[in-house]
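name: query_chain
kind: protein
chains: 1
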Amino acid sequence: MLKPESFSAAANKDVILVLDTSLSMVGYQGKNIFESVKGSVDTYLSTLQDGDRVTFVTFDEDVKVYPRVLIDDQNDRDIVKKYISITEATGQWTHTLKMLKTVFALADQITKESEQNKTELKRNVVIVIMSDGLDDPPPSRAKEKFNLKKVAEQYSGNDWWIYLVNLDELQKSKEISAAQQNLLNELGKVSGNTSILDGSDPDKAINEELRKDVDSKERDQFYRLLAVVSGFLILILLIVFIFIKMRSVKIKGHLEYWNHELLKPEVHNLSLTNFAKKEIILGRGASCTAKIREYESRYTFSLKAVRKSGQILVAVSHEEGLDFGFKNKESDGYLQDGDIFSASNISFRYIAE
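structure:
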């Protein structure tokens, strides 16, 4: 039996990896976590699917966006890994607000490009922000209040998957914890799919918790897509079934007919079943399905199998100008077993099967 893991994701991802390169990453509280984080990201890159795209972003007092890389083979993964390996944490400041504005603008651009691309499913945008959570802008921006309200309003309502990886121990730093929680609250307005991960163990946060959550979201997305596709296929099959059912409706029975203008007419028998048709046109012309002996009128009449209230009935109609009428009942447009009707100089009796 196929499992969800056997299938590729419902859609490829655009992953934006954001790494804090301020000095706090290599010396805050005497703990150097930078190389450990880089190693964890390196491992994470190896798990991305072919067709995913990666944009690596670093930030301190400034923001650097590396070229986006489409993952097609190991060489592409190595390009991003090279970007990460040469990255150093040397920034004097941590301008978090500038980073968020840049990253959200990038994610918005990616989203719009994906929506305009009609040849593939809309890509999932995954934003992974790895930082110690301290907003410490350069002196020239010191008076700029860290307020994400306008940014959140500008990009609100997106379905991006945003992960804040707190690269310090939450329980040991109330300042960091409060800053991250405030950031989480604001980012929740941008996307409801925002979560915070304890990055005191970077590898666990990135390669276990983050991957598990992304896999879960992709699995849910796959099931939703599968439900839509299944529903569509069922609808198509139902339409085809009805179409085949309608086409399979055929006239059954036979007609006895005679020239009622003669004193001793010969009675002929016409099998309607043998035609294996839904509609039979009767008369004398070349367009007729069944040609009637001694039929004098140039106007035709037709018999058609129709489904009504779960039953198959034979509906009868005729061209204007034809002398047509039932002899045993008022016309209701349908033939019942034993009905007798006349068309031109010929009388007919319908015998049902």
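note: The chain has two domains: 10-233, 254-351.
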